[in-house]
Amino acid sequence: MTLTRALLAALALVTSLAAARAEVTVTDIIGRQVTLPQPAKHIVLGEGRHLAVLGLIHDDPVALVAGWRLDKALDEPTMQAYREKFPAIDEIRPVGSGNRDISAEAIIALHPDLVVLTLIDRNDPGTEVARQQIEAAGIPVAYVDFFSHPQENSIPSLRVLGKLTGAEERAEEFATFYESRLARIRDRLAAPDIRRPRVFFHVHAAPVNCCSTVGTGVFNDFITTAGGQNIGNDSVKGVLGNVSLEYLIGADPDIYIATGGTHMAARGGLVLGSGVDARTAQASFDRLISAPGFSSLRAVEDGRVAGVWHLFNDSPVHIALIEYLAKTFHPDLFEDVDPAATLAEINARFSPVTVPGTWWVAPKK
Fold first, then answer.
1. Which of 1, 22, 135, 289 is the most buried (most CB within 10 A)?
2. Residues 300-355: pLDDT tens digits?
3. What ranges make up the beta strands (E) of the chain?
């Protein structure tokens, strides 16, 4: 009898130790401690397009996702690439619609073992109520951020997702890849005497109703890291604001950068990104920089202009954009850097799908 009790006690200890090893505890991006009994296998994404972020650390991210909010969904070419490889993507249930709407009832009905929200959600009253209801139902919620402060938060957020979903090694592999490239840029720009060109960043660029630009935040951080000075920071007090074409001409930037995407086709603006061929992107860019006012900019006359895909701003893949900007601002310092090769390596080593497209464009030579 004593031997039996000893064996049972030993078995209980082994079971307890195994459970302790399986338990996962992380501190999310807003400092909340999140504990799961084991890595999550059935999750809800607060942002649909973060499926592609999960794809950087999982061979089959679709298998993990039970529901998603589609306010910020995958763009159609990316969705199609995932659908071709993972047909089960069409079984993911929507859990909200419209601007930031999310349904606690729909999420709870899916019985997920984790809900992933974003930093933007933290300040949304409706989402905060939903979060409280979800947690009251016993479902853990973790916050990540790839959008509001991408350079500061993307890699910590990826590590949070990696630990919560049992992909720590893959997350660390991508973190090493990202951080080595970021360090190369910072090291080469460390000298205080390096001249930093004055940059105008024209977001959602079109030749009419000019010009939306950036003050603080996402793209301002990219510009600064790449060795430029964001002149919009002088006139725009928040993340985004508008200035006139006359202001742009008077500001006389050293470099003009436009952002665009397929959403700009209807407005006659810069069209590039996923699913866009090089000829279409080049034609839209040429129309933009040859429009009245733009064509007289010194930056345009000197060929110091470029167009980039706007949606680099919600994924750690933005490291390729920072490389492209650094190479554009300081071609001599970054002659050996190849942003296209960086994207190709990300696709080969990390992403389960490759999406065709044109991610940047420059004047014809």
1. 289
2. 999 999 999 999 988 999 999 999 999 999 999 999 999 999 999 999 999 999 99
3. 24-27, 33-36, 43-45, 65-68, 93-94, 114-118, 141-144, 198-202, 212-214, 229-230, 240-242, 255-260, 273-274, 305-309, 357-358, 360-361
